[in-house]
User: What shape does this take?
Amino acid sequence: WICGPLMSLIDTMVIGQTSSLQLAALGPGTVFCDYLCYIFMFLSVATSNMVATSLANKDEELAQHQVSTLLFIALTFGIGMFLFTKIFGVQVLTAFTGSKNHEIISAANTYAQIRGFAWPAVLVGLVAQSASLGMKDAWGPLKALAAASVINGVGDIFLCSVCGYGIAGAAWATMVSQIVAAFMMMQNLNSRGFRAFSFTIPSTRELLQIFEIAAPVFVTMTSKVAFYALLTYSATSMGAITLAGHQVMVNILCMCTVWGEPLSQTAQSFMPEMIYGANRNLMKARMLLKSLVMIGAIAGLTVGTVGTIVPWLFPSLFTNDLLVVQQMHKVLIPYFTALLVTPSVHSLEGTLLAGRDLRYLSQSMGACFSIGTFLLLLVRDKFSSLTLCWWVLVFFQWVCSFLCIMCYI
Assistant: This one.
């Protein structure tokens, strides 16, 4: 889970040392590449949920068929996103950034077009990773993503700092590392006895089954992604320096929030067996939920503290521009407050996904998005304050947490 945000953070750190303008361009660039990728997390959730449930019922042949079907869907979406990036990339970035920001649009488009080559590999790798996690195999994906992070880090330093390719070099390093990670995760599936390179066209009935799980998750992830995209969109109207400071902080935030994702994945991998499996045990499921929430609270405090100290005391790791540092420091308090609750939210959401209580999850997230969007646009238009925009993010995170808790009361 840490790999994607880590890659973006490495890009931010390397680019931030060379150009504040290109650092600002990473904002819309990563929205286009990374945030859109998060929308396809419904493939990940559907894969881990279906595979874990099938294996809990001792049906390995069904699990193999489900993986092959989801791999085909992922490949289809990946090719579609590659074509979408090539055809509509400039138009989307212009609409997002504003037609007056020509230099930012040009740099962001360079970044998005290069990373667009990796779309098929990214989505296929996402399904392969989730299938492994659904089988309770974390080591295979860990090795693949560790290798990808090393390739990305070394590539960024060589292409950006040594060769001077700037934002294009960062994009090439990230793209290559994502393709390598996807190939390694497919190989890991093969080693587990699954036919990873076997793609099966789904039937209408199978598409409906996937849709039942994926549609509410799609609404949930789209709401989150759209809100974070609107947060960056609001920052674009405040100038390149403000956008650069926001880009650094939102990348660190994403890097810190993924520490809660293993809690969500743990719930999705172990809960189905306790809720639906042959050895059904609801008492164990409740105990696991309590443990995950407690771990989430501790993780939130720890990650929030460490994640705040780094940009506060060591901003030179990300940029040498003092004006950008000032913008970073303006949002430290809301940034810390948002981080506190995030891991606990992940554990609660993972339990809802495992129990397939998807309608409540999608409805509550849709309500949070609607209210958060209204407040965000109001703050942007009336006050033009990055700090207030981040306080709206705090509101979004804490209301999500409250609504998830209400489901269990």
Residues 3-406 form one domain.
